[in-house]
Amino acid sequence: MSSSAAQATATRIFSVAVIGNPNTGKTTLFNALTGLNQHVGNYPGVTVERKVGTLQLDSETRINLIDLPGTYSLAARSPDEMIAVDVLLGQQQGAEKIDAILAIADGSNPERNFYLISQLCELGLPVVIALNMMDVAQTKGISIDVEKLSATLGVPVVAICANKGKGLPELRAVLKQTVLDPKVPAGPLPHFTDAMSAEIDALRADLSREGNKLKRDVNRLEAFRVLVDKGGYAETRLEKVLGPAFRLNLEAHRQRASKNPLQAEEVRVRYAWVKQVLADSLKRPASPPPTHSDAIDKVLTHWFSGTAVFALLMLLVFQAIFRWARPLMDGIQSLFEMLGSFVSSHMAEGALRSLVVSGVINGVGGVLVFLPQICILFFFIAILEDCGYMARAAFLMDRLLSKVGLSGKSFIPMLSSFACAVPGVMAARTIENPRDRLTTILVAPLMSCSARLPVYTILINAFVPDTSFGFGWLSLHGLTLFAMYGVGIVVAVPVAWLLKKTLLKGETPPFLIELPSYKFPDTRSVILRVFDRGKAFTVRAGTIILAVSIVVWALAYFPHSPEIAARFDAQRKALKKENREKLASQIAPIALADLENNKSEVGLILAQAAAIDAVRKKALDEKGITEPVEAPAEMTPEQKEIEDQTGRLTAELQKSSATLWPMVLEIRAQDMALADGTAGLDKAEAGQYLRESYFGRMGHSVESVFKPLGWDWRIAMAAIASFPAREVIVATLGTVFNLGSEENEESAGLRSALRGATWDGSSRKLFNVPVALSIMVFFALCSQCAATLATIRRETNTWRWPLFSFTYMTVLAYFAAMIVYQAGMYAGWDKL
Amino acid sequence: MKTLDSLKPGGRAVVKGVSGEGSAVYQRLMEMGVFEGAELEVVRFAPLGDPMELRLHGYYLSVRKAEAALVTIEEVLP
Prior knowledge:
The structure holds 2 protein chains of 2 kinds. By secondary structure, chain A is α/β, with parallel strands linked by helices. In chain B, a hairpin with a 2-residue loop joins β4 and β5 (59-63). Chain B has a single domain (2-76), classed as SH3 type barrels, CATH 2.30.30. Chain B has helices at 24-31, 65-68; strands at residues 2-3, 12-18, 39-45, 52-56, 59-63, 71-76. Chain B has a 6-stranded antiparallel sheet. Chains A and B meet through α3, α12, α17 and β12 of A and α1 and β5 of B. β12 of chain A pairs antiparallel with β5 (59-63) of chain B, so a sheet runs across the interface.
């Protein structure tokens, strides 16, 4: 019974650890028992999530279920794997003492599953065994006599089907009985040789003499793992504290314990035990009957059909995160834009409004915009994992990724990163090996995500010659885009290889993975997984992203000198004065008196003319015509119809307004000129603020750094301002080149502004093909995404890796961009 | 002595020994039930020729050829 059991409320709380092999339906069982009463945290110093769920048995008894990572044995080889051992031994920092163990085993594969159970039965804790997937066992012709097995083991055994909810009431009852009346396993335990047992005790005695160095007691079970697991983490951890002398002593103990490898000895003894305890209760046919799962596998792992299905599935996943998420993302974005303009119109102008609109609302919007992609990707991952396909995908793809030192499990995170690195990094969670997982997390952001596409599009359209070759099948535009996507992949290969050879060096993780039987995915688990990932991203990565957005807003906003506002206000006033004077002088010859006499009538006609314009604009928008052409010959039939209609309405209005019409035309012309002029000044003002902001000053001061890349201070500043989120480059370029921030990658305005831009104080063109390529390569490789960095921080539980990711990608991007520019200039591409 | 990676799909064998003591692969092979005396069958190879799929103790296991090379076997003729 735990010390927390006696509470003032008389509710007794117990802690039960849930543990089992991977693919045994542990998560499904955990979800079925606890529902939404789950809390996810982190164990200090490792990437393992600490998931605790509550199971309220009755008003007086509650169990905190602690979900431990799926494992095949307690022989840990990494800090992450050691967590389960330490939690079970009651020595894990930040975890409560365990009152009992709920071991879940795959009833259709009892032999291997009971290997772990043999280790669990030795811990001196009450054990409850849930035999899951008894329906699958049946199709394999396997039958297990649960009562007999329970009697042999001296441990309660409950047959369940977690996904159908079968056997759960019994399991709850057994759990309650076990925590209220705890009994350790009564059956026979694995019997190791006397020499081995003696050495475990001797090693433990040696270790107790090191008490002042270790500052803790090493219990017998940990001593067992230290002795047996050669190269394991239990040994490494002690060696770190005790030094090399400890290893020598340990080897001596091992020599005395057995002349055979101790690991083989452990396995031999445990499998013999498994055979013995299952002997009376397990019945398995001599030759297994063919199952549906085998039939499915014949297709899904076949060299041709398997590869084809895999390719189609990946295409589906990719399409879903790339395209299907789009409408939802656009929806979220426009929602936040609406919120922004609502707040803008209801708050007084100033720093506070700018902070709320540009910092907070944009920041929160910038977080939530990723949610559709994350939810869709994890929806697919949850289904693929739950039904058993994920292991096959890894099986099919392993060869490809093993060349760079990774495994087939890295494929889906990498692929997802082409849509967005944030879900990609989160998907790396499916890789158990910490070094493989970290390598994947570090190279995933090199894949060209959807946010890079606008940058590529605008620069390619503006600067790469639009030539086709290969009978018009290949265009230079398409080829350049392809090359940009290729850059990331090509660079990722040596980076991954280098990481695995240096920083993340270590033994190659085994690729011994089980290919579990196919089953129907569990709806509850899929939904919970999606919900869980979405929440984890929003809450924990979200706070960091929000903070970054606010900092960036401040850098782009301040010092916000009032002198600029005063200057532009004066210019706006002067413009208006000039415009009104011009209008008066134009109208004077017509008849100023007429205007005075017919003021209300003129106003009415102006309003009608404005209404006609509005109708035209709406009709054009509906047909998707963003840039209407002037010349009738080039008009599409749709546009022609709209223009004709507009012409008819205008002619009618002209007829009815008779002599007042010339005056109306003049007023309209001058009003439009004024509106254009004011908008131009507004944009210039925004550009001026940005140039004089801290960002702008940075751009100026680092211009010389970016000179070798062919950039001037404006490009440098736009690139620096894009570090939090690379997609803002398009808007930033618009602002810097005085076009306002409403630009998108298809706007002709930005394209021609970029084409016309020259170096400060000279007529030399700023942009050419090498410059455009250098910018694109920079964007392809640079770490310009606060969301990704925040996600890496969340997933690795330390700032070290996001910092590393940021540094290596940025340095790489800089030099790659420089090489591309210099090579391009040398090749004479600037004349293209 | 023949090693596991030399088997063809459909081939059956009994494990005679595993080398590489102290390595992660050795340990995992043991835990997954690939130890002296275990019976297994090669089901298929992945489309790119590696890894291979085994059937043992009534379940399916994927093993890279390099890992399978650590396992010495005696082939069982059908």
